Amino acid sequence: MSVTIQEKESFEANGYLLKKGLVSRQEIKQIRQELPDIHRRMLADPPPEVHVAWEDDSVECAPARKGRGAPDESKIIRQLMHSELVSPTLNRILRSDTLVDIVAELMHPQVALYHSKLLPKEAGIGAATPWHQDYAYWQTDENKPIMLNCQIAIDPMTLENGCLEFIPGSHRWGLQDHEQHQETFGRFLPGRYYKREEGVTIPMEPGDGIFFTALVIHGSAPNTSPHPRWANTFAYNVPGNGEHQVREVLR
Ligand SMILES: O=C(O)CCC(=O)C(=O)O
């Protein structure tokens, strides 16, 4: 699977590109099998390099709405940073030729891993991700906004369970002023999250993936549905673009 001329033109115009069937059903099944154990390990003894942010503790979890990852636990993961260190399947996928070939086409022929993060959004609990540009988090004095993000769907993703939404073409607007708060997803555009007229909703099936630039504005609604929405995001960088923003050169 690589990128057609039409897809590249669409990516350049919109700032994002959806690829259906990027990851096989078998690999998605393997990730799902790993999740309960990952959740248990994060509760008991997370490895030092892995950073877990939990859903707001004040959220009451009704028994029917416990996290799918660990049905008998009340703490729900909101974001798990460096998921490649706890999921062998995600680690394999992020470096597969299928993904790296596309990143090389859309970003730069040299490709490095910046980070990988697991983003569960549990049924009826998962919070909104406010509108933002990733570069608002990633900018330093020495890097450029040339990184590329790729989110893969582990579950079916819909507007109701909080799939990604984008503002097409907003990657051409430059970095906007973001509010900054001490919380997960604490950098966001004024208004945090609300339904935007010009927002384009991108539903995905398990195994679909969406590539998007560091400057395109995106966000996602809370999960108000009875269905979990697990996803994982791989961020790629060009080697040399930022001193601490390359974990591993892949190509
Ligand atoms: O999964 C989400 O809802 C948000 C993910 C996101 O915004 C990101 O990875 O930059």
From TrEMBL:
SUPFAM superfamilies: Clavaminate synthase-like
Coiled coil: none
Gene3D superfamilies documented for this protein: q2cbj1_9rhob like domain
Domain of life: Bacteria
InterPro entries in the cross-refs: Phytyl_CoA_dOase-like (IPR008775)
Pfam families: PhyH
An MF annotation (GO) of this entry: iron ion binding
Classification via PANTHER family: ECTOINE DIOXYGENASE, PHYTANOYL-COA DIOXYGENASE DOMAIN CONTAINING 1
Protein name, entry field: Phytanoyl-CoA dioxygenase family protein
